[in-house]
Write a structure and sequence with these properties.
mainly alpha, two-stranded antiparallel sheet, 4 strands, 57% helix
């Protein structure tokens, strides 16, 4: 019945913009046992306010990143010269000593000292005190390789002189004016070269291509997509959901007034409609919004599964301010417990469940594809867009790492004397929570856009 009403609304030229954007964004999600309404209620009423409070803390607002890496795929002719594209890094004194000290990434000072002594004696000396320097280096490289083999994205080299701390609250994600062929090239490279799509299958709404029957093109594309295995279908939906989320942020924090005495940022309903109105996007907009909800479920599930890692007594959100650090860890654990209580989680066991060898190859193909996408972020010409692109792809990559490290998480040692097989760096932790914060904010912003569109009639 609901579907029939939606179709009537969509066929009516006089239908409201509210219905054209959101009529199909309701009910059950594909490949899931969850529905849009449950997510809206859970996010907007329970999780969103607490998460925003946590992300305002020093531990989560300060992100170390190298924005000067060269694009590994093509020559970027020039960087965006728009003033709103600029990123203002932190001064050294703005960063708490505890964060600047790399030894406090995951553990307390005492635990790090004990761990360092134990690892030095136990992992190397106790095995064979006569190990050569070359062998010792090889062991360290093997350990590094094992860790990198689990990652779905490129991590920043925090020791690089080009890496700087950035205050995310002072450099918010919003519309900067970065658009056109260079911006489109980023997304085109992601979709066309990294989403397992044959070049003969055309995506709907590709700019500068003129087709006589866009509806037929969309039907062919979605027919191909539905014929893919659930893993590749899920991968595409994650990328589409991330793209949708970023577009919501740009529409919600749009430069509405740029006069000599003020800058006014706010919700641009026309921009939102241009990206998500079914009539203006040949029916693609609502699909993108549904993919946003799918992305939300994936990252929410990762947070729930990561709870045992953060519950370790040795883990601290270390800034050097003991009372504040403890308070923020308690808030983090409360948020993760809340995430775990969500009643309709995505079931990741449905992925990679076939033949063991084929499943392993498929998982590695997807890992490498996402790793490639994270490298494409260094090709973004706008520094502020690059900052948030790197953070959000790294956060999603960390979510995927968590989802497919269930055995390692379950095997976390109860004693700090043992080295855990599963680890997260501070950079991964900050990107994980902030990336989900962006998705959570997008879901919350949809409520605002619904109201604004309803007011416009």
């Amino acid at each position: 019945m609901k579907l029939g009403v939606c179709m009537l609304l969509l066929l009516h030229v006089s239908g409201s913009a509210d219905s054209r954007c959101f009529c199909q964004v309701t009910g059950d999600l594909d490949d899931c046992t969850c529905d849009v309404e449950t997510i809206d209620s859970f996010n907007n009423e329970q999780l969103f306010p607490k998460l925003q409070t946590l992300l305002e803390s020093d531990y989560f607002r300060l992100y170390k990143v190298n924005l000067n890496k060269p694009c590994p795929f093509w020559t970027v002719s020039s960087h965006c010269g728009l003033k709103d594209c600029a990123v203002k890094p932190c001064k050294p004194n703005d960063v708490p000593e505890g964060i600047r000290s790399s030894s406090h990434n995951k553990y307390s000072a005492e635990s790090n000292e004990q761990r360092g002594e134990c690892e030095q004696a136990g992992l190397l000396g106790a095995v064979d005190v006569s190990l050569s320097e070359a062998t010792r280096e090889a062991l360290l490289n093997w350990s590094k390789h094992d860790d990198e083999a689990e990652r779905f994205c490129v991590l920043e080299d925090e020791e690089s002189p080009d890496s700087q701390y950035v205050d995310l609250l002072l450099n918010p994600e919003r519309f900067t004016g970065y658009k056109g062929p260079e911006a489109w090239r980023i997304w085109n490279s992601i979709y066309e070269e990294n989403c397992f799509k044959p070049f003969t299958i055309k995506r709907p709404l590709i700019p500068n291509l003129f087709h006589s029957s866009p509806g037929s093109e969309a039907k062919t594309f979605h027919g191909w997509l539905e014929g893919q295995c659930v893993e590749k279908r899920a991968f595409y939906r994650l990328i589409s959901g991330l793209h949708a989320s970023i577009n919501i942020h740009l529409s919600a924090r749009y430069l509405l007034d740029d006069s000599w005495f003020q800058k006014k940022w706010g919700h641009n309903v026309s921009e939102f409609r241009g990206r998500f109105d079914s009539e203006m996007t040949a029916g693609e907009g609502p699909k993108r919004l549904r993919n946003l909800y799918f992305l939300y479920l994936i990252e929410l599930r990762a947070l729930a599964k990561a709870l045992p890692f953060f519950q370790q007594p040795s883990f601290q959100l270390y800034t050097g301010r003991a009372e504040e650090d403890q308070r923020h860890k308690e808030l983090l654990l409360h948020i993760l417990q809340l995430a775990r209580s969500f009643p309709l989680h995505f079931d990741e066991t449905s992925l990679f469940a076939g033949d063991e060898k084929e499943a392993a190859k498929l998982k590695e193909d997807i890992r490498l594809a996402f790793l490639n996408i994270s490298r494409i972020m260094d090709c973004v010409g706008c520094f502020k867009c690059r900052l948030w692109g790197k953070l959000q792809t790294q956060g999603l990559g960390t979510s995927l790492k968590i989802l497919f490290s269930e055995r390692q998480i379950e095997a976390l040692p109860s004693s700090s004397d043992q080295r855990p097989r599963f680890q997260l760096s501070r950079q991964e932790i900050v990107s994980l929570l902030n990336a989900f914060g962006r998705i959570s904010t997008s879901i919350r912003e949809l409520k605002t856009f619904r109201s604004l569109l309803a007011e416009d009639g």
